[in-house]
Amino acid sequence: MKKGFILTQQFTTPLFQFENLKLYTLYLEINEHYFCCWAKEKTDSEVHWLEYYTVADQEGSLLEKLQALYTTHRLLASIKWNAIRVSFDNQEFTHIPLALFQKEYATQYLQLAKGNALTVEQEVYVNHMTQQGVAIIFAENSHLYHWISEQYPFVNISFQHLSTIICDYLLLEKSTTIKAHLHVYSNHFFLVIAQHGELQFCNRFAYQTSEELVFFALYAINELGFAPEEVSFTLIENTINTQLDYQVLSDYIPVIQLQEAQDALKAPFFSNQFIPHYS
Question: Is residue 49 within 8 Å of 74, Cβ to Cβ?
Answer without folding.
Answer: no
